[in-house]
Amino acid sequence: MGCITKHYLNDSTILGVWKIEEDIKTLMEMVNLDPDEKKRYRLFASTSRKLEFLSVRALLAELLGKEAKIVYNKNNKPFLKDGSRFISISHSQKLTAIICSTDERVGIDLEYMGSNIGAIAFKFVNRREKITRNPEKRKYHLYLHWCAKESLYKICDKEGIRIRNNITIEPFEVEESGEFRGKVKTRKIDESFDLNYSRYDNYAIVWTKKNYEDTKLSGDKKCCTPSRSR
Fold it and tell me: Model's pTM, two decimal places?
């Protein structure tokens, strides 16, 4: 199927989602891997990891063109090689998602809602957060909390953030799609974010973005570092 959505959130920020239905050979024909990418690709033993890797490059080419390249820092965090945009990537099962922006910090996470997430909710939901008791919405609500916290962790690009204790999601009524807010608070970070969410089949998707220049002007420039190449 390839790219199932290519959505311009504003003049500078674009979000894309790719559904992996192609085989390795088909995806390989869609991308132009450079020597470093080929070396990294050969390290993957499983077919699923190879498909994920290629789908990310195929989606990036769809969003920005085949000349766009991803590199990784020492912590294995992805960046655009030319440093032109902030970028965040997520994949789960058969979906891959990318959000990138020229002037907004970004974070995205998607998850296939297959496991009994309620059994591990105590690991990431804190006492200040409210989860619906509606059995038809509870699982989705929990996955949205998890995806939101992963997105905020990515946008802040900071080590030492504890998902349960340092990130709090404000209460919200869960729908198929919508908005809510979250806050990251540590000794070095004290910042709030708007988050958007959506559901695709059995996947939960959450993303967040925040203008980098506005962050600096507001005095929060020490809170979170840029999530783009340097």
Answer: 0.91
